[in-house]
Design brief:
Helix content of chain A: 10-25%
Shape of chain A: elongated
Strand order of the largest sheet of chain A: 2-4-3
Radius of gyration of chain A: 16 Å
Oligomer: homodimer
Chain lengths: 91, 91
C-alpha cells in the first residue's frame, strides 16, 4: 500500500539462529497536519514489546526519518537468548 | 536488516491527501522457539495508537502471516479526517 513493502529474508543458517523483532512505522501526513507523533509511539511500542519479551537496552536499534509528508521509524530488536528463554510468560 | 525494506511512496496528489499510518512487524524465530506473540502485540499496539489518534475500527486493515521461522504482521490505518482533526492532544 504505502511506506514499506514486504521482503522475505532468506532463512537463517543454524549458527546464526536468533530471535529478532523488526517494527517499522510509516506515518503519511498531509502537509498541514499536526506534530509528528512517531517518537511518542516509539516509546509506547517499546514498552509494549517489553511486556512480552526480555529486551536488552543495547539490543534495540532505532532509526527515525522525517520528510514533509512522511515520517518513518524503524525499530530492530535482537533478543538476548534464542528460543523460549527470550519470551516472557504469555497471557 | 531483515524482514522488511523501506520503500518511499510517491507524494500524494492534493485530492487524495490523507493521514495514514502503516505498522509492520516481523518476528524471526528459531524453529524451537515458543508461541507466536505477534497477535498479542497487535492488540497492544493498536491500543497504543488509539491513545494518540482517533482511529475508526473500519479503517484498520490487518494481515498476519506465519511460516516456521518468520511471523509478520501488517497494520494499515487510515485516519478519518486529514490533518489536525485526526490527532489527539499530544503530551
Amino acid at each position: 500500500m504505502f511506506g514499506f513493502s514486504f521482503r522475505q529474508r532468506k532463512p537463517n543458517s543454524a549458527q546464526t539462529a536468533k530471535e529478532r523483532l523488526q517494527i517499522l512505522l510509516a506515518h503519511e501526513r498531509t502537509s498541514n497536519s499536526g506534530p509528528d507523533f512517531l517518537p511518542l509511539l516509539q516509546r509506547d511500542i517499546l514498552e509494549v514489546v517489553r511486556r512480552h519479551m526480555d529486551v536488552d537496552g543495547d539490543a534495540v536499534d532505532i532509526k527515525l526519518e522525517r520528510s514533509d509528508d512522511l515520517s518513518s521509524l524503524e525499530i530492530n530488536i535482537e533478543m538476548p537468548g534464542s528460543g523460549k528463554t527470550a519470551l516472557k510468560r504469555l497471557g
